[in-house]
């Protein structure tokens, strides 16, 4: 058993398959075009609604630069308005739309007297939402007419400027919409495994993003990160590193000192750089990148990512054969997780140590850590972690030929993953249970489990997919179906060759799929 078979290498980044999410920065380009910093923190949906009411842009021009930074004598009145705003939101959540409208209107009046334009824009958007949700068309029209009456007179020059702004805004939104479409197309192609077409699609999106004026750093950063993650996934490491470093540069243009919209994506990109070096077995370089990841995560008070980085540094240290230092780093990760009461992280660290001990051929120590993790998972009621620990305990007993104990633990894991619909673990449970049943000669049930593992692992875990193909092929050999077995072995070998070409020369101590030719020699003549 090689290192990467018992001890997982970095998994594909979530950036490869992002959830349906809007890119978060396009609206900022519109604000920059109008040079109104007050708009910077507003949500994109709010901006779209406000664009439908031009008088609010006129308010912004009129009040731009005039908002008082200090509450001064208006401090009490400002607190009262804030309380009204909060009350209006509460009534809106209770579906008391008329009550919410009245309270928000009072808040609007107070902010208007203080020339608090940023607050006015927020309250205006809330009022439009209340009217829309509650069907208050009369109230909405009255509010719009009132806003028009209170708006300052507009000169011809200001009107032309507004039209120019709207023209530029429309252009930016059209470009951004096209980028959204390309991003979704790339994501769909990734899901189908069509990596080459996905790369072309992301490159096209990047070209469009580069032409947005002024530069949309958040959008460019995300597209570079997704492109780099994809290239790293298929083994194009030099190109991937270029894109990931470009992504980090652009993220730094929009990152502040505290948590913000881009923190999660930024930290994920920093981590991916370490993953690239880890996959190439350049562990010293990986440690440097992961240490940056740890420090950046602490800077943004993202403690789970800090813990994750600590584990990755320990992983690399172990792979450099610095075992004492590596295990001390794992202990540090356990103390870190316990001190912050991050129970799932505490359990995950025990699992990771167990995997390493298993690789180092210390099954008793590995079993102790897996069982410690299982006890903690049961104590804290973490069902998913119970399934993970049961899976590892069961597989370790399988390797130690403790068939009955292995079967009991793996079936418990299967019950949990089936009941809780844990698809991300189901393929592993089916794979190891299938191997166990194959080893004890239950070919029928083993075949059922291995076929499930093949169906569910192709897009989740390529190592499991290839191994399951070979194991199921061996069943077909025993069932005297050599033609079908050859087809599976060839597919496994094809994936093995393709990914070895990309993954940069695996070392001799890593697990290889058994050559189909050597397997076929075992077929009875």
Automatic annotation (TrEMBL):
InterPro entries: CellSynth/LPSAsmb/PSIAsmb, TPR-like_helical_dom_sf, TPR_rpt
SUPFAM superfamilies in the cross-refs: TPR-like
SMART domains the UniProt entry points to: TPR
UniProt signal peptide: none
Keyword entries, A-Z: Repeat, TPR repeat
Domain of life: Eukaryota
PANTHER family cross-referenced by the UniProt entry: LIPOPOLYSACCHARIDE ASSEMBLY PROTEIN B (PTHR45586:SF1), TPR REPEAT-CONTAINING PROTEIN PA4667 (PTHR45586)
Name of this chain's protein: MalT-like TPR region domain-containing protein
Organism: Paramoeba aestuarina
């Amino acid at each position: 058993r090689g290192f990467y078979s018992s001890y997982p290498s970095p998994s594909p980044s979530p950036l490869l398959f992002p959830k349906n999410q809007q890119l978060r920065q396009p609206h900022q380009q519109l604000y920059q075009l109008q040079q109104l910093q007050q708009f910077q923190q507003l949500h994109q949906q709010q901006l779209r609604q406000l664009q439908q009411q031009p008088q609010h842009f006129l308010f912004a021009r009129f009040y731009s630069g005039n908002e008082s930074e200090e509450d001064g004598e208006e401090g009490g009145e400002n607190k009262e308005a804030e309380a009204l705003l909060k009350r209006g939101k509460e009534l809106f959540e209770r579906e008391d739309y008329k009550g919410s409208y009245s309270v928000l209107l009072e808040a609007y009046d107070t902010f208007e007297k203080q020339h608090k334009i940023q607050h006015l824009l927020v309250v205006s958007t809330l009022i439009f939402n209340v009217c829309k949700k509650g069907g208050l068309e009369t109230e909405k029209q009255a509010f719009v007419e009132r806003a028009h009456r209170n708006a300052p007179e507009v000169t011809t020059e200001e009107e032309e400027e507004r039209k120019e702004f709207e023209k530029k805004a429309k252009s930016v939104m059209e470009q951004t919409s096209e980028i959204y479409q390309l991003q979704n197309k790339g994501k769909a192609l990734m899901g189908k495994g069509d990596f080459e077409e996905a790369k072309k699609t992301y490159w096209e999106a990047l070209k469009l993003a580069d032409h947005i004026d002024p530069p949309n750093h958040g959008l460019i950063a995300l597209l570079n990160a997704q492109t780099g993650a994809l290239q790293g996934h298929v083994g194009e490491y030099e190109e991937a590193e270029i894109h990931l470093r470009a992504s980090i540069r652009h993220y730094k243009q929009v990152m502040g000192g505290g948590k913000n919209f881009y923190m999660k994506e930024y930290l994920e990109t920093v981590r991916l750089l370490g993953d690239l070096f880890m996959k190439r077995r350049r562990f010293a370089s990986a440690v440097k990148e992961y240490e940056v990841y740890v420090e950046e995560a602490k800077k943004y008070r993202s403690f789970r990512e800090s813990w994750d980085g600590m584990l990755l540094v320990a992983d690399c240290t172990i792979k450099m054969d610095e075992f004492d230092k590596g295990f001390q780093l794992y202990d540090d990760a356990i103390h870190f997780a316990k001190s912050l009461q991050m129970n799932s992280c505490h359990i995950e660290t025990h699992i990771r140590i167990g995997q390493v001990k298993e690789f180092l051929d210390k099954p008793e120590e590995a079993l102790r850590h897996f069982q410690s993790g299982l006890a903690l998972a049961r104590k804290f009621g973490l069902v998913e972690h119970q399934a993970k620990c049961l899976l590892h305990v069961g597989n370790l007993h399988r390797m130690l030929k403790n068939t009955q104990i292995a079967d009991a633990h793996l079936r418990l894991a299967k019950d949990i993953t089936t009941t809780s619909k844990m698809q991300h673990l189901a393929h592993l449970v089916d794979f190891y249970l299938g191997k166990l049943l194959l080893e004890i000669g239950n070919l029928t049930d083993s075949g059922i489990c291995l076929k499930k593992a093949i169906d569910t692992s192709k897009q989740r875990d390529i190592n499991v997919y290839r191994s399951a193909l070979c194991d199921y092929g061996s069943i077909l050999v025993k069932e005297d179906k050599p033609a079908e077995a050859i087809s599976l072995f060839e597919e496994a070998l094809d994936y093995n060759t393709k990914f070895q070409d990309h993954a940069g020369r695996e070392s001799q101590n890593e697990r290889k799929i058994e050559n189909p030719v050597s397997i076929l020699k075992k077929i009875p003549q």
